[in-house]
């Protein structure tokens, strides 16, 4: 049985007030039950001071083989932890060598069975070089848990290595039986993480401390099979039997809402998969949240990378459930005023251990995080106010998009609907350099398409720079494929081919003029999408 949180208006306030307090599982391991220090570590807001001591041979080993565990001595106040397993961690962008400011994984049971640090078998010390505010991982973790998605608890620590001050680190609990016990009754399920593969249908690494016997990856195979089922009705039914769809919709919503661009849904990275033996279903956990809120205008229904995310959004039930979940979380959990206050609180917790110069940098970085949060909320609120895109109806494989709007106007010119030779047209006229355009958005099923229409131009002079000149049709995010259309011409058919690879995908259609002078008319009735074939 899962220990669940209900999404409600007060849950985030409750969570932030308690600073990540969790109700212990009745079957929590005895070593954790015997101490309340695990909760205290994440509750108090105080910054632990940790001193790591490594012998020269351990330093040399980590220089050559940074991922191989060595023995270290850890001191916190008057408490000494001898023979702690330590290795370096981090990937492209965050990895630092032992003589720099490296990130560490500390396993207290590696060489001393049964040992714990504040009731925890394993912790990570992340250097946070990609988050100078030291707030993103902690804030993201709190938000996921507020949404009902299990996520590791975090705090911050001041770290020294062999007497050398390394500075502030993000201290994060590991994905071990201690973490699982806070959320699940049965801890014997398989836990997976990205390895050589980065998705459920690939070779994920098994990392199961409490499940020593490999259960044959049957749960992963069932989710992968369901996700790759072609028929969307059957796919959703199969997904519901193999995947905790309610939790996954919340997981997906939070990844997109937070702009977790290096997570599962957008990049097939930084995630964990767990097989809950009580429900028999698979769940996803977030990871690596040091870079959040980076793209304020990221669409709330973006192009997805994760196989399960793509599969879910390719069903009617998945799309509806995602829209409802996303809207509820945006209203009740992602509240900019509360979150920006929380960023201030997290910064203040660091103040006692910082110099004046360090404090100034933290305040500046925290201010940037607060600004990104406010911008993200404003963008999402505006996006959700827009009418939802419905699948474009195709008759005989042909659909006519509606809702054309001005996307960019010429500084010296005019745009609007115009009548020309009995045709209603989208008109653009300019007397100075411009890249003006009309656009609309359509929802399309997977397949190959042609966007085409009748276009007429008069006196179109190309820009002095760029490859794609004159009038033309284009797909959002892509380059124009047809030759430059300049000068003066009677009505001519213009077309561009493109491909939709996901089961359902929003596509932006653009009618544009790139010129320093001239006029163009796009015959509105002729603008259409032709489905060439299925993928």
Topology:
Blueprint: H1 11-18, H2 30-33, H3 37-43, E1 49-53, H4 56-64, E2 70-76, E3 79-89, E4 103-107, E5 122-126, H5 136-146, E6 154-161, E7 164-173, H6 177-181, E8 191-193, E9 205-206, H7 218-227, H8 232-242, H9 245-257, H10 264-267, E10 271-276, E11 281-286, H11 307-313, H12 316-332, H13 336-350, H14 356-385, E12 398-399, E13 405-408, E14 413-420, E15 423-430, E16 434-461, E17 470-475, E18 487-515, E19 517-523, E20 528-533
Parallel strand pairs: 1-6
Antiparallel strand pairs: 1-2, 2-3, 3-4, 4-5, 5-7, 6-7, 8-9, 8-10, 10-11, 12-20, 13-16, 14-15, 15-19, 16-18, 16-19, 16-20, 17-18
Helix pairs in contact: 1-5, 7-8, 7-11, 9-12, 13-14
Number of helices: 14
| Biggest sheet statistics | 9 strands, antiparallel
- Please tell me the total number of domains: 2
Strand content: 25-35%
3D structure, described in words:
By secondary structure, the protein is an alpha+beta fold. Strands 12, 13, 14, 15, 16, 17, 18, 19 and 20 form a nine-stranded antiparallel sheet that branches. A seven-stranded mixed β-barrel has the order 1-2-3-4-5-7-6. Helices cover 28% and strands 31% of the residues. It has two domains: 11-378, no CATH class; 398-533, Jelly Rolls (Sandwich), CATH 2.60.120. The model is unreliable at 4-36 (pLDDT under 50).
């Amino acid at each position: 049985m899962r220990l669940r949180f209900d999404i409600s208006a007060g849950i985030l306030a409750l969570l932030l007030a308690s600073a990540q307090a969790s109700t212990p599982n009745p079957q929590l391991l005895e070593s954790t039950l015997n101490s309340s220090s695990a909760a205290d570590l994440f509750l108090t807001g105080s910054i632990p001071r940790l001193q790591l001591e490594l012998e020269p041979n351990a330093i040399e080993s980590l220089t050559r083989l940074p991922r191989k565990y060595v023995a270290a001595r850890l001191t916190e106040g008057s408490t000494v932890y001898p023979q702690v397993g330590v290795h370096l961690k981090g990937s492209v962008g965050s990895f630092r060598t032992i003589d720099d400011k490296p990130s560490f994984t500390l396993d207290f049971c590696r060489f001393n069975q049964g040992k714990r640090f504040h009731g925890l078998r394993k912790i990570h010390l992340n250097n946070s070089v990609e988050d100078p505010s030291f707030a993103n991982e902690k804030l993201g973790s709190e938000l996921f848990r507020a949404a009902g998605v299990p996520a590791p608890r975090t705090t911050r620590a001041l770290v020294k290595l062999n007497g050398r001050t390394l500075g502030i680190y993000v201290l994060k609990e590991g994905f071990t039986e201690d973490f699982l016990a806070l959320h699940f009754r049965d801890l014997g399920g398989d836990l997976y993480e990205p390895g050589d593969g980065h998705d459920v249908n690939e070779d994920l690494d098994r990392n199961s401390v409490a499940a020593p016997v490999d259960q044959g990856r049957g749960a992963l195979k069932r989710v992968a099979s369901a996700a790759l089922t072609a028929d969307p009705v059957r796919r959703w039914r199969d997904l519901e039997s193999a995947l905790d769809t309610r939790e996954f919709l919340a997981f997906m919503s939070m990844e997109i809402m937070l702009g977790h661009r290096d997570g599962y849904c957008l990049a097939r990275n930084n995630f964990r998969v767990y097989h809950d033996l009580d429900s028999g279903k698979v769940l996803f956990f977030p990871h690596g949240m040091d870079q959040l809120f980076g793209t304020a205008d990221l669409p709330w229904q973006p192009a997805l990378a994760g196989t399960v995310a793509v599969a879910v959004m390719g069903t009617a039930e998945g799309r509806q459930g995602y829209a409802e979940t996303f809207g509820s979380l945006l209203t009740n959990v992602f509240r900019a005023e509360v979150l920006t206050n929380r960023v201030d609180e997290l910064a203040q917790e660091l103040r006692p251990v910082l110099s004046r110069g360090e404090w100034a940098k933290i305040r500046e970085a925290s201010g940037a995080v607060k600004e990104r949060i406010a911008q993200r909320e404003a963008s999402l609120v505006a996006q959700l106010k827009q009418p939802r895109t419905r699948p474009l109806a195709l008759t005989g494989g042909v659909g006519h998009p509606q809702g054309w709007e001005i996307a960019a106007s010429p500084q010296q010119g005019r745009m609007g609907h115009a009548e020309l030779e009995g045709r209603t047209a989208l008109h653009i006229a300019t007397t100075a350099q411009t890249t003006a355009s009309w656009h609309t958005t359509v929802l399309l099923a997977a397949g190959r398409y042609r966007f085409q229409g009748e276009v007429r131009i008069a006196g179109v002079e190309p820009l002095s720079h760029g490859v794609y000149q004159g009038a033309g049709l284009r797909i959002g995010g892509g380059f124009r494929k047809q030759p430059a259309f300049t000068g003066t011409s009677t009505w001519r058919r213009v077309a561009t081919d493109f491909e939709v690879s996901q089961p359902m995908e929003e596509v932006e259609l653009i009618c544009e003029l790139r010129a320093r002078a001239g006029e163009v008319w796009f015959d509105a009735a002729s603008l259409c999408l032709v489905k060439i074939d299925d993928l």
